[in-house]
Amino acid sequence: PLTSHAPPRWDTAGQERFKCIASTYYRGAQAIVIVFDVNDVGSLEHTRQWLADALKENDPSNVILFLVGSKKDLSTPAQYSLMEKDALKVAQEMQAEYWAVSSLTGENVRDFFFRVASLTFESSVLAELERGGSARRIGDTVRISSKESDLYLSTPRKKPKCCQ
Predict the structure, then answer these.
(1) Torsion sign, CA atoms 7, 12, 13, 19
(2) Could you tell me the fold of the domain covering 16-130?
(3) Backbone torsions φ then ψ of 38, nearest 5 degrees
(4) Kind of pairing between the strands at 31-37 and 64-70
(5) How far apart are CA 18 and CA 118, in angstroms?
(6) Are residues 39 and 69 in contact, defined by beta-carbon separation less than 8 angstroms?
(7) What contacts 85, CB < 8 A, 6 or more positions away?
(8) Best label site of 58, 67, 86, 110, fewest CB within 10 Å?
(9) How many CB atoms neighbour CB 116 within 10 A?
(10) Does the keyword GTP-binding apply (predicted)?
(11) What is the mean pLDDT of residues 33-51?
């Protein structure tokens, strides 16, 4: 059967008033997305502290990190180019993937969320396989019986007379 993968998301919006409860949400995260405004150098500087806070609750080797510059549509190409250099440097220090997005135009938003979802799903599957969970391993053999009686754990229900 198909299963859905909808990772929970928590947005503290970088506000100090959420700092005391934010650590509760960070605990056990599969991915940490730190977002800053590409038009505000100060917001890029704050990303280091938010990441440090999030990593207090998580093992850095077990979490996928993303640094995301938002509001790209509000900067000129020259302004963005300067900020991008700084952002790439910070992302490298954090060992995070860097993305620049625009909610207004939609630039990179869909691709970014697909990336987060695919990496966290892959991480979940690999963790389950390492734990020896019920997921089948590559190379396992699945035998399918051709006997109809083997397809049911219990006897099939009889059709109502109206449907015969």
Answers:
(1) negative
(2) Rossmann fold (3.40.50)
(3) -65, -10
(4) parallel
(5) 28
(6) no
(7) none
(8) 110
(9) 20
(10) yes
(11) 95
